[in-house]
């Protein structure tokens, strides 16, 4: 299958949709600083072992599209460790900070983060739309442009970024085509929602 759900190890050079949510769907980002802190930890723990195409952080879950770096490019202290260990370090560091800040105990995230390998070019395109428009999908925002916790603005900006901005934009052709793709993706979500509401009204 071109889009594989797996809990197997992460392999160098391969592309993955990484996602997870709060334990029992608990809120994991309670305020703006939480989102910013998670991204700082991502840069610290994940950027050394993976390149990031895009992301979206929602109140109770998150999505990232990444490519695992070749092992020879890992920092020396990580070359003998698996990429999964870097993710474990990220989640542990964030959970400890949230538990301390909000005086809570227990697991913050589901036990295992999920990963789906992207092995087909059509899914490369659709996963970007899915992730970028995810706040609209879950009704956290009426539009991607107005949601502050995704990679959308950074992908369109000219400011320095750790995201693979050029690869993403070039994949679509240019910024205008990318913007139109996201808007069309949003429109398809809204059409699906309208259909579901109308169907419920008819029942």
- What is the name of the CATH topology? Alpha-Beta Plaits
- Shape field: globular
Low-confidence stretches: 1-6, 195-203
Task: Write down the secondary-structure element order.
Answer: EEHEEHEHHHHH
Q: Nearest-angstrom radius of gyration?
A: 18 Å
CATH superfamily: Transposase IS200-like
Distance between the termini: 36 Å
Strand order of the largest sheet: 1-5-2-4-3
Helix content: 40-55%
**Extended strand count:** 5
User: Structural class, judged by helices and strands?
Assistant: alpha+beta
Task: Characterize the biggest β-sheet.
Answer: 5 strands, antiparallel
CATH class: Alpha Beta
Query: What oligomeric state best describes the polypeptide chains here?
Result: single chain
Average pLDDT confidence is: 90
CATH architecture type: 2-Layer Sandwich
The domain tally reads 1
Number of helical segments with 4 or more residues: 7
Strand content bin: 15-25%
Top keywords for this entry?
203 residues, alpha+beta, Alpha-Beta Plaits, 5-stranded antiparallel beta sheet, 45% helix, 16% strand, globular, disordered N terminus, disordered C terminus
Describe this entry's structure for a reader.
- The chain is of the alpha+beta class and 203 residues long.
- The protein has a single domain (3-202), classed as Transposase IS200-like (Alpha-Beta Plaits), CATH 3.30.70.
- Helices cover 45% and strands 16% of the residues.
- Strand 3 and strand 4 form a beta hairpin.
- The longest helix has 28 residues, at 175-202.
């Amino acid at each position: 299958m071109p889009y594989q759900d797996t809990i197997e190890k992460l392999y160098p050079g391969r592309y993955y949709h990484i996602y997870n949510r709060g334990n029992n769907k608990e809120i994991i980002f309670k305020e703006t600083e939480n989102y910013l802190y998670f991204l700082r930890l991502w840069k610290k723990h994940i950027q050394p072992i993976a390149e990031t195409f895009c992301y979206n952080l929602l109140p109770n879950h998150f999505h990232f599209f990444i490519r695992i770096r070749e092992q020879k490019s890992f920092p020396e202290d990580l070359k003998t460790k698996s990429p999964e260990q870097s993710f474990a370090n990220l989640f542990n560091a964030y959970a400890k900070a949230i538990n301390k800040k909000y005086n809570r105990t227990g697991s913050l995230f589901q036990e295992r983060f999920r990963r789906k390998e992207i092995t087909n070019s059509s899914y490369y395109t659709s996963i970007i739309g899915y992730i970028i428009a995810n706040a609209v999908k879950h009704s956290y925002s009426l539009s991607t442009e107005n949601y502050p916790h995704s990679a959308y603005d950074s992908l369109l900006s000219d400011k320095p970024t750790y995201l693979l901005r050029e690869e993403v934009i070039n994949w679509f052709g240019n910024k205008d085509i990318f913007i139109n793709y996201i808007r069309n993706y949003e429109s398809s979500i809204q059409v699906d929602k309208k259909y579901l509401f109308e169907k419920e009204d008819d029942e």
